[in-house]
Specification:
Number of helices: 7
Strand content: under 5%
Oligomer: single chain
Helix content: 55-70%
Distance between the termini: 44 Å
Shape: globular
Largest sheet: none
Length: 247
């Protein structure tokens, strides 16, 4: 098997399982926190400004996803978990400045969570994992788009950065921004962010303070996030409020 075929096979396999594979970082984070507490000793000093900055980083990643999703037309590659599908190639909006804005958003979200652990080598491990993981997915997705759209894809790919945006290339979408699409697709993501920060806060306190403790500020943020999640999920499942009108 050639290297290209291997990358394509691995990328397709990872793409189909991308919803849950990042969860392997949960036990890694727990082990890393316990290991750091054992080797360093003492009580970790918390810095509220730093912690909220980590949250801001993750929310910035969510914002990138929201801006991308809000302008994405139907039929582009997206949420399927059984292989790549696309009826059209999106080259405007966020896709005019970077090929993979959704994965960029994911990276920034996960980076904020990794930074929140206060463990520098865990952040480096995350970056290496992300590079290995998403590089293969991006390669497989681009190969699919190349087969589907041919020269149209080649012209777009030749000028558009793979992962680091170039805002000078911005081209406005002819679609109107759909807040309904954003709310319908990203309500789970916002909850996942606050659950992750709350989980790490609890584990951190358990490790360093030797007792179960959930800091009040993170508890409030998680409760608000949960209320938002339940509300939007009910609206999505039980009503037509979030149904997207053809733009």
């Amino acid at each position: 098997m050639s290297l290209q075929d291997l990358l394509l096979k691995q990328g397709t396999w990872l793409f189909n399982r991308r919803s849950f594979l990042p969860l392997i970082f949960i036990p890694i984070i727990v082990i890393a926190l316990f290991y750091t507490a054992t080797t360093n000793g003492g009580i970790q000093k918390k810095h509220k400004v730093y912690e909220y900055s980590c949250l801001a980083v993750s929310l910035a990643g969510l914002a990138i996803r929201c801006i991308t999703v809000g302008y994405v037309p139907k039929g582009t590659t997206g949420r399927t978990t059984h292989g790549f599908e696309a009826q059209s190639l999106n080259t405007t909006g966020m896709y005019s400045i970077v090929k993979h804005p959704m994965y960029l958003g994911n990276f920034i979200i996960y980076l904020g969570i990794a930074l929140f652990t206060y463990i520098w080598w865990l952040v480096l491990l995350f970056i290496l994992f992300f590079w290995f993981y998403y590089e293969r997915i991006m390669y497989a997705e681009e190969e699919f788009l190349k087969r589907e759209f041919g020269n149209t894809f080649n012209l777009w790919a030749a000028k558009t950065p793979v992962f680091l945006p170039n805002i000078k290339l911005w081209s406005s979408s002819d679609k109107t921004f759909s807040i309904r699409t954003v709310l319908k697709r990203e309500y789970s993501g916002q909850l996942a962010i606050f659950v992750s920060f709350g989980f790490i806060n609890i584990i951190n306190n358990t490790v360093y303070l030797k007792k179960f403790q959930f800091d009040f500020n993170w508890m409030i943020l998680l409760i608000v996030s949960t209320i938002i999640y339940i509300t939007l999920r009910l609206l999505k499942k039980k009503t037509k409020v979030l149904d997207v009108i053809d733009r």
